[in-house]
User: Fold this.
Amino acid sequence: MKYDLSESISQRSSREKDAENNRIKKISDELRRRCQLYETKFGDSKVYVNHFDAEQRIAEEWAKENDLWIAMDEAFQIGVPGPSGHENYTFIIQDTIFKINNLLNNGGVANLLDKITFHNILFPETFYYFIGFAGFDGRSVMPILRQDLIKNASPATSIEIDTYMAAIGFIKNPVDGKFENDTYAVWDVVPRNVLKDKDGDIFIIDAEIALK
Assistant:
């Protein structure tokens, strides 16, 4: 029996993405588990620090244990600096864009990793891979993510975004850029976060996502 090469590659790619999404979820679960242990141990003591700071130190510890810690100075040389917003510093290497997320919009590391797994389920054409954590020892911790670069693209219009989201089963909310289905609420789906390539295909490169 002969197998179609493109179908075989597609299936392999799908398995790889499923494995990566499961890996990201396990990391998120492990960080939450360690945070719960910390809060159980120190929650009423004088050494207790707030959840966000505790999670930062726990993420740093985990990253160093797993050889996924990158010094901030090194991380900022990962590629050619690209366009950056108030949430991500971006760096480009050929067909790949790396994003160093400062966690300003996500309420912590585990919450960001959850959002990434949701994104990968809903928008696999702009799949995120988790690379590791950048940071200064004992201070800030920033997840590093990787996406394929969408080349020769421009921001999609609001009408194009609405049409695309409807096509994949989402209902538009009165709030601009917000959509819902039975499982997810997705917002900040606005032209700065959505690209259209030269063939007219739409790519959601970034969005806020939560389970309903």
Notes: The chain is about 40% helix and 25% strand.
